[in-house]
Amino acid sequence: MADLQIVWFKRDLRLQDHAPLRQAAEAGPVVPVYAFEPSQLRHPDASARHAGFVLECLAELERDLADRGLKLLVWRGELVDLLTAIRRQAPIGGLWSHEETGHLASYARDRAVAAWCRDHGVPWTELPQMGVVRRLGSRDGWARRWEAFMSEPLAAVPDRMEPGRLRLEGDFPELRELGFADGDAPRRQPGGRQAGRRILEAFLAERAAQYRGCLSSPLKAATGSSRLSPYLAWGAVSLREVVQASRTRRRELREDPLDRGRARELASLAAFESRLHWHCHFIQKLESEPELERRNVHRGYDGLREDAFDPARFEAWRRGETGFPLLDACMARLRETGWINFRMRAMLMSVAAHHLWLHWPEPARHLAGLFLDYEPGIHYPQAQMQAGVTGINALRIYNPVKQARDQDPEGRFVRQWLPALRRVPDAYLFEPWRMPPELQSRCGVRLGRDYPSPVVDLGESLRLARARYQAWRRRPGLREESARVLRRHGSRGNPDRIPERRPLRDPAQPCLFGPAELEA
Question: CB 3.0 to 4.6 Å from 486: which of 129, 282, 363, 490, for a disulfide?
Fold first, then answer.
């Protein structure tokens, strides 16, 4: 019997544009596997909504593989234990997978898998699935390499593949069997490639023209943005197929002179594609420096907030009980759906870091579990950017009252997600603490009972945050450390060289955490 070719699915839950599967099928009989690994499920960012989405993707993947002659083996346990069990039954000719830029626990897992493969003489072939470059020495020329990868043809799906024969049996676990008794978002997007493709096609055919004008509004972005980010994060669709589908639509628009709205749609699609580019730009940061999950990218900011963490403030922020209606409404929506738009994500992190003066890792981990589209490589660099500890980005301190007036002027979003405030007049909706007691009584909302009082005074917290930053930035060595960060992680205006004199800030200013939605 020919040696088995093990295809390890991770954040690439599809057959289409899956080069490891195609190459494994050319090498011999295939055993496709997915492992629910305790080392990953125990990580603080793991959540029921992630697992539920993955299970739905796997159910569809199982059917697609069966149509081509393969049986998906779903394993509960570490991958090295699965490889050991397979090797007891048949020789393994190779392990195939996509490269993954994950958190430190997945990095440690990959090192354990690599060690097992070396010890047992099993070649492990990892192939890129996006524009992130492993072992990148310099950012120079990175954009050109991204473009080259996105322009390559999609990896073809074999019609039939020879199955590897094993006596091992897997199963599809329930969420509670994975350690998640509850916590799945009841109104989240469904998992699976078919759902992702429907959303992509509907976006390109019907919604793309709205894209640029809807991104900041928590109401409009729900339908105006692409909503592809969960499917990209878990690999139900590939980044390359989305880029190429967008470019195909742009060509169609250019060739149709009768389409009166094409200029607006072309501009929106160009903006959309630029965000797909930034998707990989941010993941590259974590790929190049995995420790960014835990420590500041700019080491000169070590000690800025670490010793000032206030558990009570964090708990109020986590529960959506800060007393700032727009922020609390965003948390309510996230709990229910697993998604919120880019500006509201930036606001959530900014308020936590600046007004509440919370060190960023704990809020970032909490948001990671809430975001259905959680992508570690985007999430942690973006969290640090909003917390003001990169040294190369402009400091942004969001005012949740101003954001409410700008992005939800009629209060529709706040009233939808905070029922206690539905009867509050517009004049007080975003600052309910200003309501006189008699008006509170008429509206049926007593501050401190039906809705919390503000956890901090916004004006005072803003003054303190600015003063702390100004004092901290006078420390010696910060500019030199900023130059190091820029050389390692900054974008390149000219892909071939870095100018001798360059301002110490990254020209990119996207503010979102989800893969397809890096929109500023």
Answer: 490
Q: Closest by alpha carbon to 396, among 455, 465, 457?
A: 465
In the β-sheet with 30-36, what is the strand arrangement from edge to edge?
Answer: 73-76, 30-36, 4-8, 92-98, 124-127
Which structure tokens are listed for 499? 């100018």
Question: 519 near 512, Cβ under 8 Å?
Answer: yes
Of all residues in the chain, what percent are helix, strand and coil, respectively (each to 5)?
55, 5, 40
CB 435 within 8 A of CB 443: yes
Query: How far is it, in rounded angstroms, from Cα 310 to Cα 266?
Result: 47
Give 251-306 pLDDT, tens digit per residue.
Answer: 999 988 766 668 889 999 999 999 999 999 999 999 999 999 999 999 999 999 99
Q: Is-contact 40 105, C-beta < 8 A?
A: yes
Q: Which helix (H) or strand (E) holds 93?
A: strand 92-98
Pairing of strands 73-76, 92-98: unpaired
CA torsion sign for 410, 414, 415, 421 is negative
Closest to 326 (Cα-Cα) out of 231, 416, 232, 221: 416
DSSP of 235-278: TSS-HHHHHHHHHHHHHHHHT-TT-TTHHHHHHHHHHHHHHHHH
Q: How large a percentage of the chain has pLDDT more than 70?
A: 93
- For position 493, what pLDDT does the model report? 53
Q: Say which residues have a Cβ less than 8 Å from residue 209's Cβ, sequence separation at least 6.
A: 261, 264, 265, 268
CA distances from 90 to 31, 117, 512 (A): 11, 15, 46
User: Residues 470-502: pLDDT tens digits?
Assistant: 999 999 999 999 999 999 998 875 332 333 333
- Angle formed by the axes of helices 142-151 and 262-288, nearest 10°: 120
